[in-house]
Amino acid sequence: MAGPPPNAAPWRPVPALVGSLAGLLAGAALILLAIPLAGPAGTATVALLLAFGVVGALRAARVAGGDTTRDPLTGLASHAGLRERLEAMLAMARRHRWQLAVLVIDVRNFRAVNEAHGRGGGDQALGLLASRLRAAVRQEDVVARLAGDRFAVAQTVLQAPDAALRLAERLAGVLAAGLTLEGGTLSAQVDIGIALGPANGEEPGLLLDRAEEALEAARALPEPAIRCWAPALEAALRERRAIERDLRQAVAAEQFQLHWQPQRRLSDGRLVGFEALLRWPHPTRGMIPPAEFIPLAEATGLIVPLGAWVLRAAVAEAATWPGGLTVAVNLSVAQLKVEGLLATVAEALSISGLPPHRLELEVTESMLIQEDQACARTLAGLHALGVSISLDDFGTGWSSLAYLRRFPFDQIKMDRGFLGDLEADPRGDAVVSAILGLGRGLGISVLAEGIETEAQAKRLTALGCERGQGWLLGRPMPVDQARALIETEEKKAKRVAA
To answer: What was the pLDDT predicted at 16?
Structure first.
C-alpha cells in the first residue's frame, strides 16, 4: 500500500472508526481497516477503499451463506427479494400517490411436465418461463419466482386503471406460446391473481396475500383464469375453504350418494342401463349440486379418491342388476393420469363379479386435448380389460373426428346441443344424421343425450339412433327408486314374453 502523499500531515489512527468497521465486517480479511487516517488526501483515498471493502464483504457473505433475495434456478428475485423491492415500491407509491400491481402466476398441471420430461426438463421449463416473463415486462418492473411453478410480477406505476389486467392477459398469452424442451414442447396454461397497492394493501405481506387470494379464486375455476382481488372475494374464499374442509371429511367418510339416470333403447323404450351420477348430501347445507363441488374436488386432488369410490360403488350396485343392464361412470382427467386406475377398475370388477363389458367409462373430449398421450395409454389398457369406452359430449370440441380414429371408443354420446327442434331445423337434422352415419360406419354405437320431448325421441328413432337418455326417458333417481324401476321393467318384459 502506498504511503501518504508528499508534504501530507503525519498519519494519525482513528480507533473509533476502525473498531466500528471491524465489528461490522466480523473479521473479514480487509487490511483497509488497519490503515491509519491522515490528512485530507489520505482520508479520501482510504474512505473510497473502505466502500469497496464493505460491498465485497457483503457479496462474499451472500455467496457463502446463500443469497436469499435471488432464486438460484432462474436468477429472478426470490420471495424475500420481492418483499424487499415491494417495500420500497409501496413507499414511492404512497409518496407520489400512484398505484402499483402485484400479479401472482401459477402454471396449471406443471407436475405433468416433471412426469413427462423428468426433473431436468422441469427445471429447463421453469428457466424458459422465467425468461419469457422477464422479456415481457418493463425494465423497472420486478419478476420473481415464489416457489415451484409459481411466479410473481410487481408492476410499478400503473398508467391506466386496467393496466394490470392488460398485462396479465398479455403474460398469459406469452406463456401459452409453445416452449421447446428436450423431447417435446410445452404450452403453459396459467392462472393469475392481481392485487393493487396501496389500494388493496399498504404492506408487502398483505398485498402478496391478497394477490394469492385472487389466484386461489382463479384456480377454483375449471379453465385458466385471471381474477382481481376485491373485498367480496374474502367472503367467497372463506366459504370455499369451509366447503373444502367439509369435502375432505366427506371423502374420508364416504358420505356421498349415487343417483341413477335411465338409458333406454329408443325403438321400444326398453331399459338398457343407467348412468351413475354423484350427489353430496351435506348435513347442514342440504344436497350440494355436482357443479359446485366437482370443480373443487378436481382443484384439490380429492377427485381421485372420490372417483375411485364412485367406481367401486357403481360397479357393486350394477352387479346386483339382472340381465345385461350396463352402468356408465364418468372419469376425470386426474383419474386418467393416475397409474393405479387400471388396478382400481380391475379390482372393482373382480370383487363385484360384474362382467367387464357391462361397465362403460365416459371421458370428455376436453380431457383428451389436455392429456393426449397419457390418455391413449390408459384407455388402451382399460379397453384390454374388456371395459367399454364412451366419448361424452361428442361434437362440442374441434377435433372429435381425430379422436374417434385415435382412441378405442365403443360408444359416442351425442351432445344435447344437437337435438333442439330437429323437425323444424333441416341443418340440425342433417348434422344428427351425419353423426349417426359416422357411428355406423365406424361400428360405434351412438347414444343421444338430453332427450326432453316426444318429437325428439321420434325423430331420433326415425334417423336410426339406437339409445337415448334424458328427462323424457327418466330423471336421475335414488338407488331405491332405480331398483324399483328395474323390477317393474322385468315384470313388464315377462308379461310381453308370455
So the answer is: 34
Give a yes or no: residue 269 inside a domain: yes
Q: Are 297 and 305 in contact (CB under 8 A)?
A: no
My answer on whether 295 and 187 are in the same domain is no
Looking up cell 487516517 gives 37
Q: What is the CATH number of the domain that holds 100?
A: 3.30.70.270
Per the CB < 8 A criterion, the answer to whether 169 and 192 are in contact is no
> Would strands 184-186 and 142-147 be described as parallel, antiparallel, or unpaired?
unpaired
223 and 311 belong to one structural domain: no
Lowest mean pLDDT among 243-252, 273-282, 310-319, 399-408: 399-408
Specify the number of domains making up the chain: 3
The CB-based long-range contact list for 128-136 (8 Å cut-off, 24+ gap) reads: 128/179, 128/180, 128/181, 129/175, 129/179, 129/188, 130/74, 130/75, 130/76, 132/174, 132/175, 132/177, 132/179, 133/76, 133/105, 133/171, 133/174, 133/175, 134/76, 136/170, 136/171, 136/174
- The total number of residues written for the chain in this structure: 498
Angstrom CA distances, 277 to 46, 239, 313, stand at 80, 25, 11
Calpha distance 89→351 (Å, rounded): 63
pLDDT score of 62 more than 60 = no
Is 235 inside any structural domain?
no
- Categorize the per-residue pLDDT at 370 as very low, low, confident or very high, splitting at 50, 70 and 90: low
**Residue found by looking up cell 415464489 in the block:** 146
- Helix (H, G, I), strand (E, B), or coil: what is residue 28? coil
> Would you state the pLDDT for residue 35?
41
Q: Both 320 and 254 in a single domain? A: yes
Look at residue 243 and tell me if it is in a domain. Answer: no
Q: Rounded distance, CA 314 to CA 31, Å?
A: 79
Quote the pLDDT of residue 36.
Answer: 45
CB-CB contact of 407 with 389 (8 Å): yes
Confirm whether 240 is domain-assigned: no
Range of the domain at 136: 79-230
